[in-house]
Amino acid sequence: MAHHAVQSFTILALYEFIDPKLNDEGTLGLKNEIEVFLRGHKARGAVLVSTEGINGTICYHSFQANGELYDREKDVILGFFLKLFSGLRTRVSFCDSNVFFRLRVRVKSEIVTMGMENVCPAQKVGEYVPPGPEWDKLLEDPDCLVIDTRNDYEYGIGTFKNAVNPNTLSFNELPQWLEDNVKNATKKPAKIAMFCTGGIRCEKSTSFALDMFKEEQMPIYHLEGGVLAYLDTVPPEQSLFRGECYVFDQRVAVSHGLKPTHEFIACHACRLPLSPQDRTHPDFKQGVQCGNCVQDDVRQGRRQRYENRHLQMKIHEKKGLPHIYDNKEVCLYTRQAEKKASAST
To answer: Catalytic residue numbers?
Structure first.
């Protein structure tokens, strides 16, 4: 990570695949332990816990003063997770406000859904390539097929030079795309390199690819830390990344230095990123719909609810109050305030 100056809020992205896997009881216990700890520190974000490991992004008040250089040893929340997972992969960035509305800690069957059995990234993955000259060399190599493993809408707002778009709507479509377009291709590449947002999807996709191309003994690489690591370390003037990187929080997209760009907003209905041009579409309605989802029958049935929600958001905005918040968070702080008031009387 670059030597960042601390801002008001810390954003911690983390994941780890583990082997041996947890049992169901251990997974539930871990989920509860994490949620209690994070709520105690007023953290928000999304954490997925599975028998195969953990995946999450969390935002919380920084443990250091604004302007100080970040010190991992002072980050209590990072320290908590490092005690739980010894091989945890992390990335830290900063923002002036919380980038999440609420905290969600959930148990899932996979920490990133591929839907393929017998894929175990804890046992084998492709070769890590650090962001910088080594990765750029693969991008410029005509014998290397560089695959963007993210979804089509993510590719649409930014990707690497010479990267191939599989045109997937979800990550679990990637195995079939590899089968149809690479495994069964008349002419196969000499090597494959993959990348994603923060690295976790490529842990699974390269593990899967190692099995698929075992007979060919094809070298499989992936960008260590994903696009976020590249944007965090490579100066803009040397970068082969074009556009912006989609992120799954209120920032929507970031650029070099992991700075929010404010170019895109997310549709409140379908969550797809919308450029200024997208927002000129005749079907775009702030907080309700966009040109991508206006014909979606499911969302059509929810249209009135979206309109009511947007109206409430505008009312709360005028009052200077948050509209979307975490009910569990509110209840916790209410109980704490009542307990404090009771103790003082």
So the answer is: 196
Q: Of 97, 81, 9, 99, nearest to 45 (Cα)?
A: 99
Residue 295 amino acid letter: Q
Judge whether 199 and 226 are in contact, CB under 8 Å: yes
Residue 186, classified by CB atoms within 10 Å of its CB into exposed (0-12), middle (13-18) or buried (19+), is exposed
| CA separation for the pair 219, 215 (Å, rounded) | 11
Per-residue tens of pLDDT for the chain, all 345 residues? 556 788 999 999 999 999 999 999 999 999 999 999 999 999 999 999 999 999 999 999 999 988 899 999 999 999 999 999 999 999 999 999 999 989 999 999 999 999 998 999 999 999 999 999 999 999 999 999 999 999 999 999 999 999 999 999 999 999 999 999 999 999 999 999 999 999 999 999 999 999 999 999 999 999 999 999 999 999 999 999 999 999 999 999 999 999 999 899 999 888 999 999 999 999 999 889 999 998 877 666 788 888 888 888 888 888 877 666 677 776 666 666 667 667 766
What is this structure's pTM?
A: 0.90
